[in-house]
Amino acid sequence: MEWHDEGIILGTRRHGETSAILELMTCDHGRHLGLVRGGRSRRMQPMLQAGNRVDVIWRARMDEHLGMMQVEPVAFAAARLIEQPVALYGLQLAAAHLRLLPERDPHQNLFEILNVIVEHCDNSLIAGELLLRFELTMLEELGFGLDLKSCAATGGHENLAYVSPKSGRAVSRDAGAPWAEKLLEMPPFMSSPTVRAASLSEVISAFRLTGYFFNRHIWEPRAQRSPEARDGFLAALGRSLSNATGATAPVQERSILP
Predict the structure, then answer these.
(1) Strand, helix or coil at 235?
(2) If exposure means fewest CB atoms within 10 Å of the residue's CB, which of 46, 59, 223, 240 is most exposed?
(3) 115-134 pLDDT tens trace
């Protein structure tokens, strides 16, 4: 068995004295593990860091085996990520979400968003928005996607402001006004890929919404809790934006997602 693919490193763990087990999110083969001979050597360790992008060849006698990985660098990002708490926690959060999926199931859309996260994590507000959209895509891939395109009550596409906690469907401000206390607040950027998050409060509100559905459909049924990296990411995001000059960003009619 053999395949060739590109992957983003999610993590490594020691195996024996000299080798390492590498965990990748690949383009065509999903989240995949493999053994790297000599992975703990001085030459290999800088390459096998979370966030780096690599070319990988995987080989095994049978498909269900762990297999061997041969990797070559494509882009080094780990050194940049590790210096920024928002970026570091963001990558850890994305990895924690990806581990909810069955190993080796292809999810090319998630791979592409993860690649954009790694490339654009220097801006804290953009990083927050990208991780939020990553969570929305994760919910969809896990079978619990939210319908944020039109109002559940009127069918309209304008002024969407809430999400029903029962159905996961958007509700317009006028239609939801009588039940506003029972609905989940939805910031404008969540319903459109061309609208950017305007402030930290919008990003936090959006994560509160996705967190509700993760807890209801995924974490609680699996007897799990919200990843520690999620709390760390939101805390780092708050610190970064509160210390920055002009913590709000203007809305731009452009999406940086693929």
Answers:
(1) helix
(2) 223
(3) 999 998 878 888 999 999 99
pLDDT tens column, 159-193: 999 999 999 999 999 999 999 999 999 999 998 87
Structure tokens at 75: 């882009």
Instruction: Write out the DSSP string of 66-125.
Output: --EEEEEEEE--HHHHHT-HHHHHHHHHHHHHHTTSPTT---HHHHHHHHHHHHHTTSHH
Give CA–CA dist 164/17, Å, rounded: 53
Indicate whether 144 pLDDT > 60: yes
Q: Whose structure tokens read 């919404």?
A: 209
pTM exceeds cut of 0.85: yes
- Residue 90: Cβ-neighbour burial (10 angstroms; 0-12, 13-18, 19+): buried
| CB 51, CB 81: distance < 8 Å | yes
Residue among 236, 184, 175 at smallest CA distance from 205: 184
Enumerate residues 6+ apart whose C-beta is below 8 A from 152. 164, 167, 169, 170, 171
* C-beta of residue 6 within 8 angstroms of C-beta of residue 71: no
